[in-house]
Amino acid sequence: MLTRRRFLGTAAALAGISGCSSVLPEPDVAAPGFGTGATGTVKVWCRAATQTGLTSLVEKFNASQDRLRVELTPVLDAQYVTKLATAIRGRGVPDLVDIDDINSMLFIYRDAFTDLTEALQALDFRAKLSPGHLRLATRSGRAYGVPYLADNSMFWFNTELCDRADVDPDQAVTSYDELLAAARRLRKLGDDIYAWSFPANSPGALGFVVQPMVWAADTDLIRGEVGQQEGNIVGNDVVQRMLELHRQLWVDGLVPRANFSDDASRWGSDFRAGAVGIFPSNYSVVVSGSDEAFHAKVTPRLLSGPDGGSAFFDGGDNMCIPRGAENASGAWEFVRFALDLPQQSDLPAGGYTPVRSDVATPEFAKKFPLATLPLERIEEGYAPTTLSYNLLYNQPDGPWLQMFRRAVFDGELEAAMSEAQESYDRILAQGQA
Amino acid sequence: MPRLKNVFYVVGGLGALLVFAVPLLWALFRSVQPNDVIVAAPDRATFFQLTWDNFRTLIEGPGNLLRAVGNSLVVALSTAVLTALLATLAGYGFAKFRFRSGPVLFALVVVSMMIPFQAILTPLYLQLNVMRLTDSLFGLVLFYTTVNLPFGVFVMRNSFSSVPAELEDSAHVDGCGTLRMIASVLRPLITPGAATVALYAFLAAWTEFLGALTFLTKDELYTLPVALVNVQAGAYGEVNFGSLVAGSVIAMIPCVVLYVGLQRFYVTGLASGAVKG
């Protein structure tokens, strides 16, 4: 008999079940005509940090045809994951998300994005796309996103200071010892000239510029595949030497004291003022906000390892189509436009670098000489594939920043590393549970 | 002796003036400096190079701050009016009508002040989504009004409680109805309370960030706090201090105007809420 209580119970259970199924229907990318001749509006989210570039891209796209209209919504970087997760939970997703590539994995592993493998194969420049970005969008051989823009970390040398201190950038990046020797010579130039500068109180920026100095030696602070990952810190000689190098830079006074509390809110102001010789950072921080005369004075090199080798952080944006997108076809059309050569070649104007290696033509190099290096060596870009990146590297109380500060400022290297190993293991285990 | 007192008064007053005025003036001054000058160590050569560039970027750039100011004004003014209206009616009911569940209901309203909305953000989002009130300034107004109502009802109930019953009795004798009573007889007495509620709701809605960020996903609907953070924040925590300080100057204008305009009501209203409750 259907009592009131039973009726309410069943209704609640049904509501619970439908509420739990957060996997939205996947758009049919194999349908004939997908990505051509779409109409209507395309809702696109982008990061607030890349808003300027995306805005002009959208304006260009909207002006290029009159079938589709892209509506762009910038979302604050720190809130992007939460906001997108809430939108998926509320089943009201945008048609395309331009998302920090390091975060795309989070959604791919929760079946929130559309499989774009075949659509991607159909692009004739597929082989030219940044492999580091693509790795962050790939799960079990299937691609769930497309690289759009790159944000790479590199060493930036102030050549004027280097000349005065007799430092050869090419020689400096051959080993940590050479880097340290170069730093010591640079510091001798004067009391207000520093050799180096690192944002030691900004977990994200620090991870962005320092981790590649470990990857350059073909190792990482994390080991294993997603699902069985653990920390790779205790016993990792490269991590230890990286920390020792930074400890030495600090102890010898080769970096500004302000590095201790540098939260990257004024990142690069010391370098742009010409007071720093070697500055690990990205294109945007160095080039935006400084003038042509300064651009002529700097030269980039890839970040290097303890005994040579090189790497850079493959940061930037991937474009992904969330499941449940209403206009996936229009979204793909916009993606193709965004990846087209004219648009890609224009990215440095907004502070970012392209994700297609074939953009690096002589004309491009002439126009943006400081943006070509990562394109020429696109294979050396890397970023860890893990579901716990934010917890490990972007939180102020995360183990990465704790380890770095304890080792560099307090000199407790071994304790810092074993503490970090424990936290890495725990966070990685929780993230995979 | 009185002279010494005067000296203390003037010195103390000037000190207080400096404490309050200097940060404002400093913000105004910084807002017309370029970002690179703001973040660099002060240098005589560049320190007084003033420019409107920060304001120009905010207004003409992709952030479109003027539109955000418009959205915020619509939301904050609507919230203020709606909150003041509802709180006045509810406050009158709680103060003047005797009914059995009255104290319990009032306690419930006041208790709800203790739950920060941040704690129930996801359910709130889902609820608003089902009612198709996300991506809508109207939905945001309803949300802000709900959050501000408990405090408003509390203040208005106390405002009405402090009105002597004789006044109403004599109005009743003259044949005055409830609404007329509030609008004509009690209005002058409760204006401070209503102004407090309105001002409080306005400021809360004007500065609120998290709710607006969560419930709105359309660029053209963003309110000022969301637009401002979007404009000045970089990927690694870089802050464009030029945009930040210029945006803050724009954001404080309505607050200062309203506060100065309603100040005398505000102070009286707060006192009536606190002491006579």
UniProtKB/TrEMBL annotation, chain A:
Q: Name one Pfam family in it.
A: SBP_bac_1
- Assigned keywords, A-Z: Sugar transport, Transport
> Which PROSITE patterns does the entry mention?
PROKAR_LIPOPROTEIN, TAT
What PANTHER family does the annotation carry? ABC TRANSPORTER SUBSTRATE-BINDING PROTEIN, ARABINOSE-BINDING PROTEIN-RELATED
Q: What is this protein called?
A: Multiple sugar transport system substrate-binding protein
- What InterPro entries does this protein map onto? Bact_solute-bd_prot1 (IPR050490), SBP (IPR006059), TAT_signal (IPR006311)
Q: Which organism is it from?
A: Kribbella italica
From TrEMBL, chain B:
Supply the SUPFAM superfamilies for this chain.
Answer: MetI-like
Protein name according to UniProt: Multiple sugar transport system permease protein
Family statement: Belongs to the binding-protein-dependent transport system permease family.
UniProt keyword annotation of Cell membrane present: yes
Query: Domain ABC transmembrane type-1 spans what residues?
Result: 69-262
* Membrane topology designation: Multi-pass membrane protein
Q: What is any one of the record's Gene Ontology cellular component terms?
A: plasma membrane
Q: One Pfam family of this protein, by short name?
A: BPD_transp_1
Cellular compartment(s):
Cell membrane
Out of the domains of life, which is the source? Bacteria
Give the record's GO biological process terms: transmembrane transport
Q: Which UniProt keywords apply?
A: Cell membrane, Membrane, Sugar transport, Transmembrane, Transmembrane helix, Transport
